[in-house]
Structures are given as C-alpha cells and as structure tokens.
Amino acid sequence: MPQRLSIGATVFLVLTAALGLYFAYAAVQGPSGILRRIQIEAETVELRVARDALRDDVARMQNLTHRLSDEYLDLDLLDERAREVLGVVRADEVILK
C-alpha cells in the first residue's frame, strides 16, 4: 500500500508550487519583468531617434542664429529671411508656383 503525504507536507508542496508560479509570473509580467524590459528598450530606441532629430534641429538653428548675429552677418540669408517674412520680391524677379 502506497504511503500518503501528511496534511502538513501537502500544504507545504501546494504553497511551494504557488510561490514558484507567482515568481515565474512576476519575472515575465511584473513591473521589472522580461516583457517590461523589452518595452523599455523599444521606447529607448524611439527616444534616441527623437533626441538625435532634435539635436540636428538645434544645430541648424544655432547655425542660422550665428549667421544672422552681429559678429557674422550673412547678407544672403538676411535677404532670404526678410523676403520670406515680409513676402516681398524684387521688380526684376519672376515667381514660379
């Protein structure tokens, strides 16, 4: 006749299995789990791309600001910006749309 486990041993095995399942679930689905880590890494890549685009915009704006500063005045850029902002053209120019 096979031996049966005592109630204490059965409760211990059930609790151990439940804790094991809980920790396995937390390792995959929890706030520090594998799926959250994958999501954070994907967001990191997207944010780095956005950061690089913003850096390029800032560099372009710094270049334009420097070219329109008192220390270094680019007359062609000044003329271009004034025409665009004011909407004016010279009498000898042809406008193509």
Structural overview:
InterPro entries: FtsL/DivIC (IPR007060). It comes from Paracoccus rhizosphaerae. This is Septum formation initiator family protein. With 97 residues, the chain is mainly α. It is 71% helix and 0% strand. It is built from 3 helices and no strands. It has helices at residues 7-29, 34-67, 75-86. The model has no long low-confidence stretch (mean pLDDT 89).
Ends apart, CA distance between termini:
98 Å
Number of strands: 0
Strand content: under 5%
Sketch the topology as an H/E string, one letter per element. HHH
Q: What's this, in brief?
A:
The chain is mainly alpha-helical and 97 residues long. The chain has helices at 7-29, 34-67, 75-86.
What is the topology?
Elements lengths: L6 H23 L4 H34 L7 H12 L11
Features:
3 helices; mainly alpha; rod-shaped; 71% helix; 97 residues; 0% strand
